[in-house]
Design brief:
This protein is of the alpha+beta class and 372 residues long. The chain has nine helices and 20 strands. The longest helix has 18 residues. The protein is elongated and about 75 Å long.
Amino acid sequence: MSGGIAVELRGATKVFGEVTALKAVSLEIRDGEFFSLLGPSGCGKTTSLRLIAGFELPTEGEVLIGGQPMGVTPAFQRPVNTVFQNYALFPHLTVFENVAFGLQMRHVPKSEIGKHVSDALDMVRLPGLEKRRPKQLSGGQQQRVALARALVNRPKVLLLDEPLGALDLKLRKAMQLELKSLQDRVGITFIYVTHDQEEALTMSDRIAVMNYGLVLQVGTPHEIYERPASRFVADFIGETNLIAGEVASLTTEAIEVKLPGGDRIKAPLIPRAVVGQAVTLAVRPERVRLEPDLSVAGFNRLEAEVFEVVFNGATTSILLHLPDGQVLIVRQPTVGTMRTAPPEKGQRVRLGWPVEASSLFMEKSEAQAVLA
């Protein structure tokens, strides 16, 4: 990445009738970056993409591409191309003709089109398929043709609106790696819309997590997974344990949280916490250990009862009831790579996790925060 700003949203708001789909969103997306807009349906991610593409104009705020305000610049005059989930290939045209279509619309000389199309198909690993029609291709091949058609004009920014959604799981995972490798090779800024957390974590340099038309957190996959900024982000990204309690005491180093059953655990400090306040503690299942070493400092320790053991293949999930009835999940490597077999149903176990592995959130939903 060069470090410059490829795309910027400045206070972008979009209203459709009585619905505010986007609420004063500001984002900076860097040159050469694979940037994902991640969130549930209706969160504003596709609306953001459509504002950048020029398919919609902001009600308030502005969009800049390469530092230039787009204003009312129509989609076809913006230095971007879009790849959709349904591919949008012309069924009556060959692969060559589909990829060449944009070049022809730009009146590129016929003598140059062949070279550009060949280079684009090489880029997406589809040489030799120029004469086939879309119905003669697999879903993955059709997606590559759509990518080649978008890339052949060498846009400054490539917009991808859930482009892998129509593929089966195995092909989808393979295409995730292909897309990231392609983006690394061509060096073009990719802005990728998805509701799939694993997809975003796998491919992105940075992610913007969205909900209710707002950007809740922007960061690297590691930052968002390990240090979520809100309960929604913690719960939406991957799997996490959410444990309800209230602040029992504060020190200069940590917050002590009292659980409904009387147990006490610690978490890193958060701003504005006060004794007696309802909070939610989040900890990832893979950070929890069964039968932890009691001599290790800086560890939370609890007792629980096993009520389910689920084999997931490479890992095994152990579901536990805390004394107050709350459910907690532990994920550990499956037998063969682990030192001991998982516990059995009904067995009482000790468990623990490092204090720094916890995230603490004040007990207030994102919806309440938006309405406040």
